[in-house]
Design brief:
Helices cover about 40% and strands about 20% of the residues. With about 375 residues, it is α/β, with parallel strands linked by helices.
């Protein structure tokens, strides 16, 4: 696996959904992940290599220091390319040529997929996770330089199979890059952590989980929650994942404080699961989304979801497991939260969890990857 994003020592949440995909695929195949990361934060002062091996999955991560000057960025690209090739050659010396290459995100790991295809005649599959194929994202595909577009198109053209985590993202590639059939393989959820638990009935607890950047519109959730509280609703809101004080200050400015609203900052994956098992409803009020992992995680705990009808979200949320609202309409979101409190007993949490686990579970996703690999390389 040649990964453009992957979690590591410097950025532990960078592409963690790709790591979970790797763990799922490793249930049925030997997966060897390679990821090279150029660090400009100063944490990495020399080239560092870290190789971890577990049953079915090896992770070969390489770190190197870089600067953000123009010269530094150019130098970093060539160093990144060289270190990536070194890691690939090391794998081949020790294991021989792989049966198949899997590129995760064309930019930039597609460079190595094209190189292996040209030099060693190795076929490659490509997975796209990057939600830039829309008009909402600020640095979207349409606004990218022509060389970026040509390169992305070439990677998709040369790939023997294309995978996406949502039909929405696949349709975006087909619309903006080139027509190509896609296999949809959803993000995976660790169902040993995210599983059904019966909740206490009061107070009703909403939860939001994200890094709370502008596209997530966490401020809008706070405004809607304020409207709900002003109507006398007995409810609380747990906010997980914030990374700076701005959103907390915004809540204070609205007159929202503990215990009505709590902030937990970045917490481990296990803690997210535990918090979800205490909550009654996930709220996601994003301006744009691809296929949010957090929705699958919530559903696997049996929790219904309120989310905006954007991107790939309508592929995950329906009348049986949640409520969809339009982005940017705080009044509609507040009404949906009020409706959720009124109708919560109509949602079958146990069935929501069972249905979700049949979609997002490791075993299910692992088999889907195996089917793709077998179709491309049946002799392996």
């Amino acid at each position: 696996w040649l990964c453009s994003w992957y979690p590591g020592a410097v950025e532990p949440f960078n592409g963690d959904f790709i790591q979970r995909h790797a763990r799922a695929a490793a249930l049925y195949n030997d997966i060897y992940v390679i990821h090279v990361y150029g660090d400009s934060s100063g944490q990495i002062r020399e080239i560092k290599k870290d190789i971890k091996k577990a049953e079915g999955l090896s992770e070969h991560l390489v770190y190197f220091p870089r600067t953000n000057s123009l010269f530094g960025r150019v130098k970093a690209h060539f160093r990144w390319l060289s270190l990536f090739r070194q890691a690939i050659r090391k794998y081949m010396v020790e294991n021989g040529k792989p049966d198949l290459v899997h590129v995760h995100i064309p930019h930039k790991a597609g460079h190595l997929g094209l190189w292996l295809r040209s030099k060693y005649k190795l076929p490659f599959v490509v997975s796209e996770h990057w939600g830039i194929y829309n008009e909402v994202e600020q640095l979207n595909y349409a606004g990218r330089p022509s060389r970026f577009k040509r390169f992305t198109k070439t990677v998709f053209e040369k790939a023997v199979r294309c995978i996406s985590v949502s039909r929405y993202l696949a349709d975006g590639v087909n619309r903006l890059v080139l027509p190509k059939p896609f296999t949809i393989i959803h993000n995976v959820t660790d169902t040993s952590l995210f599983f059904y638990k019966k909740r206490e009935t009061t107070p009703f607890r909403f939860i939001h989980v994200s890094n709370m950047v502008s596209l997530k519109n966490a401020e809008g959730i706070l405004r809607a929650f304020q409207l709900l509280r002003q109507k006398g609703a007995d409810c609380t809101l747990s906010m997980l994942g914030d990374t700076n004080a701005a959103i907390r200050n915004y809540a204070v400015g609205l007159g929202l404080s503990h215990p009505a609203v709590t902030f937990s900052g970045e917490v481990p994956y296990q803690a997210v699961a535990a918090e979800m098992q205490l909550a009654h409803c996930l709220v996601l009020y994003s301006n744009i989304e691809n296929s949010p992992c957090v929705i699958g995680e919530a559903l696997c705990t049996g929790m219904p979801v309120i989310a905006t009808s954007v991107g790939g979200v309508p592929e995950l949320v329906n009348e049986n497991n949640g409520i969809l609202v339009q982005p940017g309409d705080d009044t509609a979101l507040a009404a949906a939260m009020e409706k959720m409190m009124e109708l919560y007993g109509n949602f079958d949490g146990k069935k929501i969890a069972e249905d979700a686990q049949r979609i997002f579970g490791y075993d299910i996703i692992g088999k889907q990857f195996d089917e793709v690999y077998t179709s491309v390389s049946p002799s392996r």
